Amino acid sequence: MLKPEDFDGAADRMVEIYSRIENFILRDTARRVLNAGKLTATADRLIYKLEQMGESRQEIQKKLSELTGLSEKELRRLLRDAVLTSWKDDAEVMSQLGIEISSPLKNEAYMRIIDAEYQKSRGELSNLTRTTMDAAQRDLINLLDDAEMRVSSGVQSYNAAAADVLDAYAGRGIMVTYPSGTRRTLEAAARCCVVTSMNQTAAQLTNQYIVEGGIEYILTSAHIGARTRQPGQPALAGHDSWQGRVYKIRGSEPDAPNLLENTGYDIDPQTGDGTVVNPLGLHGYNCRHSHQPWDKRLRNPWRDEKGNLIDGTGSEITDKENRERYKNSQKQRAMERAIRKTKRQLIVKQEQINASSGEYRNTLQADYDAEAYRLQQQNKAYNDFCAKHDLQPQYERNKLAGFGATQTKAANKGARRYQNAKGK
Question: Residues of 228-242 as b/e, b for ≥16 C-beta within 10 angstroms?
């Protein structure tokens, strides 16, 4: 079993790799849109557009090739660490039942399972990079078209049009669209892929221990701030309803309801294959809950003597506290997204400043300074919110590739200029 805290920060390095891809695309796209403003004739812009499609794709492919090796190496490390961490916890439980299980790295059958999960996850990341490249191409053409339409209609100058469309582009970031129609930012898609892959890979090994030991029951992990059911969703979408409980793999008992019916996850008792029947439940998208082999003779570590739900430290988790923590954690995630959004906008705004001159450059600089001041206020609000609601600040989630010490220093200077200009 992977504990909820085992997921903390695990995806940060992978997300940083994909953030570097996003930063490259944002800067590259901004430069190409800004350079189009130097052309005067519509025909010239059409030719330019066609040229940029090819050049942009080549540059992105080159960057993706550089980072693909890093992402695959990081994925293999993540899955290996997840499997070993889970094995140590499962081995302790199995030992209490008189069953010894070997390290997954010393068992060929287990290694085949790990490799199969790695290949599946690798394929998902490959799809993610391909989707990213296609999205970047569409975005470039749409931005060029949007800017040109604004100019041709007499609404704006090209500089003003480019500034508006690039600000909006930086604000939303690179979006990934799934076959279901769901849209996520590139970094969110990468994080979801990593967390889900870690969870499902460790689960498949746990299932093998269950089958080999003839185990009938499993125990789910628990944590405060578990996902709650939203309107229109099935009951199992509320992870708070099934966490920290014992379930029977086949059939049910009064003190051990059926696993599939209550969590949306199924385990084949013959092969050990685990299946996420409903992705809203256990081991589904972004789920941080896990399961482990269990026997009802053992003491449930997620329940106190009165049967109340507790976390890993022994503190009781009430329904009210869980709902409040979940609501606040969602607010925290939203604040982190807003901070990253502002950083993206500052990066693109700096590209605009670098490509401009004269009075218009001063106008852009003033816009940059206002954004920099907003970032400063967002960071303060984030820290205040975390302190008020006893949340651990997750500064890794606020980081953005391409926005390092140099950019932070420039933003701080910009914020001070804005304050001085406004007399704040």
Answer: beeeeeeebbbbbbb
Amino acid type, 415: A
- How many angstroms separate the CA atoms of 29 and 162, rounded? 11
Q: Which two tokens stand for residue 259?
A: 């696993």
> How many CA atoms, within 13 angstroms, populate the side-chain half-sphere of residue 401?
19
CB 205 within 8 A of CB 87: yes
**Tens place of pLDDT per residue across the chain (424 aa):** 999 899 988 899 899 999 999 999 999 999 988 988 776 555 566 667 767 777 787 888 888 888 888 899 999 999 999 999 999 999 999 999 999 999 999 999 999 999 999 999 999 988 888 888 888 888 988 998 999 889 888 878 988 999 999 999 999 999 988 877 888 899 899 999 999 999 999 999 999 999 999 999 999 999 999 999 999 999 999 999 999 999 999 999 999 999 999 999 999 999 999 999 999 999 999 999 999 999 999 999 999 999 999 998 899 999 999 999 999 999 999 999 999 999 999 999 999 999 998 899 999 999 999 999 999 999 999 999 999 999 999 999 999 999 999 999 999 999 999 999 987 6
Q: Do residues 238 and 284 make contact, with C-beta atoms less than 8 angstroms apart?
A: no
SS3 of 363, please? helix
- Buried b / exposed e across 90-104, counting CB within 10 Å, b at 16+? bbebbeeeeeebeeb
Residue 269 phi, psi (nearest 5)? -70, -10
Asked if 127 and 55 touch (Cβ cutoff 8 Å), the reply is no
Contact 131, 18 (CB under 8 A): no
Locate 196 and state its tokens.
């889900």
User: Would you tell me how many other CB atoms lie within 10 Å of the CB of residue 217?
Assistant: 20
Amino acid at 318: T
Taken in order 243, 248, 253, 255, is the CA torsion positive or negative? negative
Q: Which residue type sits at 214?
A: G
CB-count exposure of residue 59 (10 Å: 0-12, 13-18, 19+): middle
Q: Which two tokens stand for residue 186?
A: 């590139």
Decide the pairing of beta strands 246-248 and 217-220.
antiparallel
Place of tokens 């708070």: 240
Per-residue burial over 137-147, b if 16 or more Cβ lie within 10 Å, else e, is bebbeebbebb
Separation of alpha carbons 190 and 73, rounded Å: 15
Distance CA 124, CA 363 (A): 43
> Which DSSP letter does residue 252 get?
-
